[in-house]
Amino acid sequence: MNSIHPQEVPGRDPKLAYSYRQDTGEFVGETTADPDPLVADNWLVPAQATLVPPPAHAISKVSVWADGQWLTVDDLRGVKYSKVDGSTVQWSELGAIPDDLTDLPYPGPFNKWNGAEWEIDVEAEQLELANQTLIAREGLLVVATLRIAPLQDAVDIDDATSNDLAMLKKWKQYRVALSRIEQQAGFPLTIEWPVAPI
């Protein structure tokens, strides 16, 4: 080391230095290194900085200082989607994303990952539609049964009018039609719902 007195050091301008994060080594910007007033050709580089300029990098890449050199690393941070269930994940690490995540947005229920992209799970979608349809049908059957009961009571005690008999038949036909909706050709995608008697 060549030590000289401060007055012997010629005037020097600060030198450009490059800062990086302590935790990740990621390049964060430029700073300056001041000349060492005691040692010629020596610079006082701030902590977490280097005089070595980072390389130019492309989109989705970042320069990282590691082991005394700049490395170019993938920068894929941001919102990702689980290939397992489509849930949103906030990815915050540098480097490649894990195999169980993707950048492709989850289109919604009944989609599954096929190894390259999301595809509709037709079977799951139809099963859910069928379940929803049958639940709706059960509610309508309850209403039909409530309407039929007093009409049937009137028949059972020989007190039914011709109008009662006609309405009883219509409500029973309606209830039978409801019970057969899963036999329709378009079930569960298209349903022709029977019309309740008025």
Walk me through what this model shows.
The structure is a single chain. This protein has 198 residues and is α+β, with helices and mostly antiparallel strands. It has three domains: 6-74, no CATH class; 78-120, no CATH class; 122-183. Helices cover 27% and strands 24% of the residues. It has helices at residues 122-156, 162-179; strands spanning 15-20, 27-35, 43-44, 49-50, 61-66, 69-74, 78-82, 88-91, 101-102, 111-113, 118-120. The strands form four sheets. The chain has a four-stranded antiparallel β-sheet with strand order 3-2-1-4, with no helix packed on it. A hairpin with a 4-residue loop joins strand 10 and strand 11 (118-120). Helix 1 (122-156) runs antiparallel to helix 2.
Spatial arrangement of strands, main beta sheet: 3-2-1-4
Percentage of residues in strands: 15-25%
How many separate domains? 3
Straight-line distance between termini: 105 Å
Structural class: alpha+beta
Order of helices and strands: EEEEEEEEEEEHH
Mean pLDDT: 91
- Helical run tally: 2
Q: Which radius of gyration do the C-alpha atoms yield?
A: 38 Å
Unreliable residue stretches: 1-9
**Helical fraction:** 25-40%
Question: Based on DSSP secondary structure assignment, what is the total number of beta strands?
Answer: 11
Q: Which descriptor suits the 3D outline?
A: rod-shaped
The description of the largest β-sheet is: 4 strands, antiparallel
